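To: structure desk
From: M.T.
Subject: fold request, one chain
Message: Could you run this one when you get a chance? Sequence is below, nothing fancy, just the single chain.
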Amino acid sequence: MVVKNALFLLLFFRITILNAQNLNASDLIEKWDRNDVYQTIEAEKTYSDLKSNYDPLKFQQNVSGIKEHLKKEPNPRLEVRLNMYEILNSIQFEKKISSKTEKDIADLFQKAILINDEQILSEIYSIYVENGNATFEDNLFYITKTVEIQEKIGTAYFPKFYLRLFFASLVYYNLSMYNESIYYSKKSLKHLGKAENNLSSYVWNKDLLGASYYRLNKIDSGMYHYQNIYDVLLDYNAHFKNYKEGFENYDSPFFNIWLGISQGGIGKGLVLQGKYDEAIPYLEYNLKQSQSHHEPNDVAKVQNLLAEVYQNQNLPEKAFQFRWAALKNAKIRNTLKEAIIASKGLENMYKSSNQFDSAYFYNELSHTFEKELFQTINHSKFLSVTNRLQHEKMQNAISKAEKKISEQKLARNLILIFSIVSLGLVLLFYQRYRDQQKNKLDKINHKKNVAEKGLQESQETLKEAKDQLQIFKKSLKQNNKLIESLKNNSEKAKPNYSELQSCTILTKEDWIHFRKQFDKVYPNYLYSLREAFPQFSQAEIRYLCLVKLNLRQSEIASALGISDSSVRVTWHRMRKKLDVENPINPYEFLSEFEQNHQLNL
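Reply: Done. Structure tokens follow.
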């Protein structure tokens, strides 16, 4: 019978209405950022794409992309849709709905209410009912509100409206309100159309109809609907490719389980008619399928029926075994109705065998189950009404909040206008102040440019002076080489004095030019030498300048137009003037001089 297995509910929820292409973040934003009546249809396309073409990397990229978009452009509607998208992805891969996912669904209520959009709120209600572990009262309230809202907007805009009606029927059945359950199941089948459109929805609605009619003791009607399930499954077996369910072939757990349930449903009708021998093959087939697929709820129901059959056939041992097994399986999923039937059956059997202690035990046990079921159903009905009142209070609170927000917006606008005027005045005065500061800055920049230009010219002059010194050094080296060459060849050929004369030997004019370039490269160097050593002659100062240029002794002799020995005599004479006893060369002398006078060269 009646579907209560969470695995089936998840499978049912995941059924898609189309095969979509993989959607990127921009596609999702486009489909979600709308508030017209077609928003649910567009949203269903994105959820179908998630189910049919799931890619973990693509999913994370889409979620990250939309979150980045929300940082730049906050959008409550888009945020709610993204949360729904993430929740449905979690549901798709969780074997059992986690408490975190269920809490995430409940938290969406408040966000959706603030959007003030009943359509998107109804979608969240349906997710909560169809995938959560809510109490009967919550399910009844939220599924009823979902149906009301979606019928008011128009069922054509909700591709899975038949699913909402099925869950309404299921909730009413669990509350023992069988006429209401029949009403919603018939309505669901009408919106669904042919069984080929969704086989799961068709057989589940038929199961609810058959079970409800049996509860109302309308046996023929109950058997009719279970026979419908059997017939459509045989057609599915032969033509499964015509069905939109999405199974790869007919040999699926779904097919085998429901083939057994349909047989069990027919078998129950035969039991109610007293046709026990005819009922046994149907019930045994149902039991075999349900046991092989680990469905303890359905196993408990079939075992209770077989116990009744064998009890009526005066086979108490078999009846006892099935009653006891039924009670055990009913406890696994806390199926109270089957637990009550099994415990009462055991009570009657023990009474008939005069085992009154055991009979009393199972009598107490059945009363415990009945009390729990009664409290659950009546508490659920009471809380359903309470929830409706709370919902109305919440809507009133929202209306008051919206009115207050409107008043706050008016006050905000007035403040905004005043702020804009004040800001305009501030900007006017600020512009004047900025213009004044700009003029000052322009003057500073002009002075800076002049200074930079002067610095550039100084750097160019310094470079030119260095270049001149390098030319001078090169010239001296060439002169020195020429003199050496002339000395070596003096015995072989007559010296070419004209060539020697063409090479520049330092004249007075040369030294004046040299001093100018030297001062540019080494500012204050000559001045510091004269100040530090006034005892040196002009010629000796010139000698030290050439040493500063790192010229060899022969090159200095060539530059000064004297012999190498004269150069040595010059430095010897200078050492006496300095009164230096320790031997020191001119290069060391200049290095010590620069260090003592802190000349950074």
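Reply (cont.): The two ends are 104 Å apart (CA to CA). Let me know if you need anything else for the meeting.
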